[in-house]
Amino acid sequence: MGAYISVPVWERTIAQRYGLKGQRCLGCGAVLFPPKVVCPECGGHSFEAASLSGRGRIYSFTVIAGGGAPPEFEWQANAVGSYVVGLVELEEGPRIIAQIVGVDPRAAMAAPLFEDSAFEDSGGSSGDKGKRSLIGLPVKAVIRKVYEQEGVIRYGYKFKVVSEV
Amino acid sequence: MRDVAIVAAGQSEFGEFPQKSIKEIFAEAFDDMKSSLAGALDPSVIEAAYVGTLGVGGFQLGQPGPLLAKHVGLGNIPVTRVENACASGGFALLSAVLAVGSGQYDVVLAAGVEKMRDTSAMQGRYWLGVSGDTEYERLAGLTFAGIYAVMASRYMHDYHVPKKYLSMVAVKNHSHGALNPKAHFQRKITLEQAMGAANVAYPLNLFDCSPTSDGAAAVLVTSLERAREFTPSPVKVLGFGAGTDYLAIHERRSITGLEAARIAATKAFAMAGISPSDIDVAEVHDCFTIAEIMAYEDIGFAGRGEGWKLLEAGETTLGGRMPVNPSGGLKAKGHPLGATGIAQAVEIFNQLRGKAGKRQVAGARFGLTHNVGGSGGAATVFIFGIDA
Ligand SMILES: [Zn+2]
User: Fold this and answer.
1) What is the pLDDT of residue A130?
2) Within a domain: residue A1?
3) Does A27 fall in a domain?
4) Which chain B residue has its CA at the smallest distance from A122's CA?
5) A47 touches chain B (CB under 8 A)
6) Shortest Cα distance, chain B CAs vs residue A45, angstroms
7) In terms of CA atoms, which chain A residue is nearest residue B130?
């Protein structure tokens, strides 16, 4: 049992999953992802296709405990335990929710969520003041296996942390 | 709209009841509601009913309304299932208030029910995610707790909030739940226990999450004009509001508050003609600890980024300036999704009538309920007062 996305419905979004194809509002210029029928910025209805660079920064994140993963991610939880999911703000503007790969979940949980010497406990465990929170780190999109349903492996974007430019 | 009141309110025990189906749980709430009346209730006076339920487990997704209404002896009246995820109860109450307020009906039942415990672990994890955006949010591997966790990380980052303050919500609500004989969890926890629990979705641990519960709740809504046929002390609906937002977290500009709840609260206060500082007692939607802190701000009890500070001084603890979730909240009382919004109204009904037992807020005159669907896709806020 899992969130049911049929193969035809998944195929409909291949351009988004593989290529981050979004749209640009012809009314206000806002770049949107995934594609919409109404612009949330100006209410416009006319768009042109826009490809996203896949570069952005982590706006927020969580570490999902393997034991609580949705059923369709059971395979991943079994294989790696906890995994990181981030809300990424792309340089073109839109935010995308996706997994962050190549980050140790323990390290992600150990780093403080903010830098403030006034508090002893800032979210991470003590003695981790030198570690940097995932929030704000630069990332770029990569294609990975997302999950499998109806015998079809569903590939799509995840993000990986890159060094500061 | 004409004036509307709640004249009777009740709930089942919240918890894990493998021996009861939704019918028995619903009947328990209906009977408890009847027992809040001085006299007997003739079920034939009820002209319509709205039943909030998500249908977790899927064993009665279609027409739970007629099933439950006939089970408790209602007439062959219009009964509608109302679904808005965890705000199903709040929206069932909204439908009842509008139906009476419009003048179409004088006496309407608003109820909610959910049976969540006897599902397999896999089924449970499936159902907990059904109210998110399936195509994009859920397929990031994000759980329901995970969505609130993404809000929590950013909230703690933006406002420099130590994890301790999230855990203080859990400690407070468990201390309140210990005073509620119908609560799922009736035991106190320490701050150390709350902070040290196993990770669920960082920064949220097990004690930052409300439980899945079995339970039901019911209130009887009438015109204020006819309220005293039922009780000498009706609770008047002073104001209400409801709102909606983008379902998915990546579509929202701000993720450190819930726009749907802000809209609902603003409308409710405008209609009631009072301000947040007038509220004596509130039941807010603490599905996760961060949600209660954001609720303080969305309702207007605290400024943006300041909600967590109310916990430091114990202002929202019983005995404090404005107790929040005296029932134990979703965290300790339990969270049977469809029942929650109605159960919040049950608690405020009892508080305003001085019938809340050991958790009574002395002299409470104005009460508020705040019920959120999913991760903020929908919300209702009601403001109640004793009709003097
Ligand atoms: Zn636009």
Assistant:
1) 59
2) no
3) yes
4) B162
5) no
6) 17
7) A3
**pLDDT greater at residue A80 or residue B334:** B334
CATH number assigned to the domain with residue range B4-120+212-235, chosen from the 4 options 3.40.190.10, 3.40.50.150, 3.40.47.10, 3.40.50.300: 3.40.47.10
Looking at this predicted complex, what is its ipTM?
0.95
**pLDDT on residue B126:** 82
Cα B253 to ligand 1 centroid, rounded to whole Å: 15
For the cut 90, the answer to whether the pLDDT of residue B269 exceeds it is yes
Statement: residue B338 has pLDDT above 70: yes
Of B142, B153, B164, the CB nearest to A135: B153
According to CATH, the superfamily of the domain at B142-210+238-385 is Thiolase/Chalcone synthase (3.40.47.10)
Residue A125 belongs to a domain: yes
| Catalytic-labelled residue, pool B86, B174, B176, B209 | B86
| pTM, full prediction | 0.95
Q: Which domain holds residue A28?
A: 7-161
Q: pLDDT digit string (tens) for B283-320?
A: 999 999 999 999 999 999 999 999 999 999 899 999 99
Residue A113 CA to residue A122 CA, distance in Å, equals 6
Cα B4 to ligand 1 centroid, rounded to whole Å: 42
Q: Number of Cβ pairs closer than 8 Å across A and B?
A: 140
Residue A156 within any structural domain of the chain: yes
Min Cα–Cα distance to chain A from B128, Å: 8
**Interchain pair B154, A59: CB under 8 A:** yes
Catalytic residue list contains B160 = no
- What angle, 0 to 180 degrees and rounded to 10, lies between the N-to-C axes of helices B88-101 and B337-352? 60
Identify the residue among A17, A31, A62, A101 best suited for mutation to test binding to B, counting B beta carbons within 10 A and taking the highest. Answer: A62
In this complex, do A116 and B200 lie within 8 Å of one another by their Cβ atoms? no
- Give ranges for CATH 3.40.47.10 in chain B: 4-120+212-235, 142-210+238-385
The confidence score (pLDDT) of residue A125 equals 47
C-alpha to C-alpha distance for B372 and B381, rounded to whole angstroms: 9
Number of domains present in the structure of chain A: 1
Dist CA B190 CA B167 (whole Å): 9
